Amino acid sequence: MSGRQELLSGMALTVFKLNGRFLDVADALATPVGLTAAHWQVLGAVLEAPLSVAGIAREMGITRQSVQRIADLLAAKGMAEYRPNPAHRRAKLVAPTPQGLDAVRRIDPAHAAYADRLCDALGDDRAGEVLAALRDLSAALDAIEAEDARDG
Fold first, then answer.
1. Which of 17, 46, 90, 127 is the most exposed place for a label (fewest CB within 10 A)?
2. Is there a contact between 39 and 26 (Cβ–Cβ < 8 Å)?
């Protein structure tokens, strides 16, 4: 295996491990308010503005089907609702309800405490560098995917 293959494998395996760790942290933060990490993820995507299921999937990097399943569960629990979409008659917008907003707000103190612990462990400057590197990695993968789509 070449050095570049080892770098790709190392990045991928590290991100997979981080994904699992972050999901565990998110579940631990969300469970006390009756949510799962997936519920929190979908609600978090629509806090600023309602989005279609496909829009949430694009934003979060997950499948449309999994977002649809979670949005339906959230709607059944009264934490999200479907609204008409002026841009597309059939693709409804997902929006949080007051109950969903309240649940996310109740996560905030534990979320803030965990953020403080992580930033204390890394240092604020290093935490910012890690975030920038992860965003750069994501942008590079997006660019390669777009190039592959263009080249057919």
1. 90
2. no
Q: How far apart are CA 3 and CA 149, in angstroms?
A: 27
3-class DSSP assignment, residue 70: helix
Query: How far is it between the farthest Cα atoms of the chain?
Result: 53
Fold of 3-151: Arc Repressor Mutant, subunit A (1.10.10)
Look at the pTM and tell me if it is higher than 0.70: yes
Written as six digits, the tokens of 39 are 């519920």
Parse the chain into domains and list their residue ranges.
Answer: 3-151
Q: What is the pLDDT of residue 1?
A: 84
Dihedral angle computed from the Cα positions of residues 53, 54, 59 and 65, in that order, rounded to the nearest 10 degrees: 70
With a cut of 70, list the residues of the chain below it in pLDDT.
none
How many CB atoms lie under 10 A from the CB of residue 97? 16
Q: Please give the radius of gyration of the chain, using alpha carbons only, rounded to the nearest integer.
A: 18
Distances (CA, A) of 105 to 40, 72, 93, 149: 11, 21, 21, 40
3-class DSSP state of 36: coil
The pLDDT, as a whole number, for residue 25 is 98
Alpha helices for the chain (secondary structure H): 3-30, 37-45, 53-60, 64-76, 98-122, 124-151
